[in-house]
Amino acid sequence: MALQTKLTVIPAIATIDLIKLSPELDGSSGANRAIGNRPQITANTDTDAIKVWLARYLDTKTTFDSYRKEAERLLLWSVIELGKPLSSLSHEDFLVYQHFLTNPLPVERWIMAKRKVARDDPKWRPFAGPLSPTSQRQSIVILNGMFSWLVNAGYLAGNPLSLSRNRQRKAKPRVTRFLDEDLWKEVKITIESMPRETNREREHYQRVRWLFSLLYITGLRVSEITQNTMGGFFSRKDKSSE
């Protein structure tokens, strides 16, 4: 008795609008598809679900183009490199994908030979080259948002990217510079004790008194004071005092 095996046809590189996927790859039976719930969208394939998600950004071209690019890259990588639909991707698959973004290979399959190629041109490719660390993070952020939305829409059962480690930048500690009232009194006493016998001493006293008052009242940095002129100061009355 002969054993028949069903081969999955790997599609050629094409944009999300032109790619043709077999039932094994189109996501209609993806392993991560939500089952037994009430989906909020009518899409039944991964490409259609992505298009519904993208439709929310049609009024902002730059956002739409950026989001489509990242969704398109992942979809193509999933069906071509892994031979599985986007809706079957696991957390482990995304770990591999993040490494792939650092150097998409083979070059002839993934990277455009020319900088500008029309999307319907057979020479079109989803990458212009390896992604920088910043672009890699941006890609994952966008895809995480897409998967979360598809879960909320009832299309996917879960978001595999939600298991990723969040690398949040630590906020720089806020530096607070101030003089308490007692210390400010000491500063004023010191200034008032400065000699004022000669014109030169009186001018020096007046400059010091004005400068320290300016620093204390405005909270300006020394660099901010030295880079401005008197023309940068103005008087404004509070509305409550009018």
3D structure, described in words:
The chain is mainly α and 242 residues long. It has two domains: 11-166, no CATH class; 181-225. It contains eight helices and no strands. The radius of gyration is 31 Å and the shape is elongated.
Spell out the blueprint of helices and strands.
Layout (H helix, E strand, L loop, with lengths): L45 H10 L5 H22 L8 H12 L4 H4 L22 H20 L28 H12 L6 H20 L3 H5 L16
Helix pairs in contact: 1-2, 2-5, 6-7
Keywords:
disordered N terminus; 242 residues; 8 helices; 0% strand; mainly alpha
Query: Over all CA atoms, what is the radius of gyration?
Result: 31 Å
Strand content: under 5%
Mean pLDDT: 86
Q: Kindly state the percentage of residues in helix.
A: 40-55%
Number of domains: 2
Q: Return the string of H and E elements.
A: HHHHHHHH
Structural class: mainly alpha
Shape: elongated
Question: Which segments are poorly predicted (pLDDT under 50) over 5 or more consecutive residues?
Answer: 1-5
Biggest sheet architecture: none
Distance between the termini: 100 Å
Annotation field: number of helices: 8
Counted beta strands: 0
